[in-house]
């Protein structure tokens, strides 16, 4: 049996926040301006692996890539603060978002030759295979 959480005030507070707070403040909680773990496409080719991380709204300086013990870790942090002074009040908002994603690399990846590029909201990472593991395009099979 799954436990059921009793939240008698949750609907009332949701309405309170929707009406009281500015739209850009509630959107942070709804996910419009806030990012979570981005989607990753992984494609294997003959010469290596190609990763695409969808992370729009970031700068290349926001990312950190590291390889340790055959684990590739991709992380990013974004901080934003906004202050609005009007008449007798001051409104100051802070937003902070981060993600961290790790991938176990096969042993035949040349980690010293990994390359990364960030363009148009997509982080592209090239993971080249070692020369010994790159299969030739074709071969002749001897029949015995």
Give the averaged pLDDT, no decimals: 76
Q: Give the biggest sheet.
A: 4 strands, antiparallel
The coarse silhouette is elongated
The SSE string, one letter per element, is: HHEEEEEEE
- Helix proportion range: 10-25%
Low-pLDDT segments, ≥5 res: 9-17, 19-34
For the terminal residues, how far apart are their CA atoms? 62 Å
Number of strands: 7
CATH class of the domain at 38-132: Mainly Beta
Radius of gyration: 23 Å
Strand order of the largest sheet: 1-2-7-6
Proportion of strand residues: 35-45%
The secondary structure category is: mainly beta
Give me the CATH fold name of the domain at 38-132.
Answer: Immunoglobulin-like
CATH architecture of the domain at 38-132: Sandwich
Number of helical elements: 2
How are the secondary structure elements laid out?
Blueprint: H1 10-20, H2 23-30, E1 40-44, E2 48-54, E3 63-68, E4 71-86, E5 89-104, E6 115-119, E7 122-128
Antiparallel strand pairs: 1-2, 2-7, 3-4, 4-5, 6-7
Please describe what this structure looks like.
- The chain is mostly beta strands and 144 residues long.
- It is elongated.
- The strands form two sheets. Strands 1-2-7-6 form a four-stranded antiparallel β-sheet, with no helix packed on it. A three-stranded antiparallel β-sheet has the order 3-4-5, with no helix packed on it.
- It has helices at residues 10-20, 23-30; strands spanning 40-44, 48-54, 63-68, 71-86, 89-104, 115-119, 122-128.
- The protein has a domain at 38-132: Immunoglobulin-like (Sandwich), CATH 2.60.40.
- Residues 9-17 and 19-34 have low confidence and may be disordered.
- The chain is built from two helices and seven strands.
């Amino acid at each position: 049996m799954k436990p059921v959480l009793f939240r008698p005030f949750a609907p009332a507070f949701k309405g309170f926040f929707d009406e009281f707070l500015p739209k850009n403040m509630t959107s942070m909680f709804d996910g419009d301006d806030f990012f979570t773990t981005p989607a990753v496409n992984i494609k294997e080719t003959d010469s290596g692996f190609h990763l695409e991380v969808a992370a729009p709204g970031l700068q290349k300086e926001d990312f950190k890539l590291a390889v340790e013990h055959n684990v590739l870790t991709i992380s990013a942090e974004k901080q934003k603060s906004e202050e609005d002074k009007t008449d007798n009040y001051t409104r100051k908002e802070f937003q902070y978002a981060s993600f961290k994603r790790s991938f176990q690399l096969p042993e035949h990846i040349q980690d010293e030759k990994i390359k990364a590029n960030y363009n148009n909201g997509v982080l592209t990472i090239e993971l080249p295979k070692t020369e010994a593991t790159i299969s030739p395009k074709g071969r002749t099979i001897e029949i015995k």
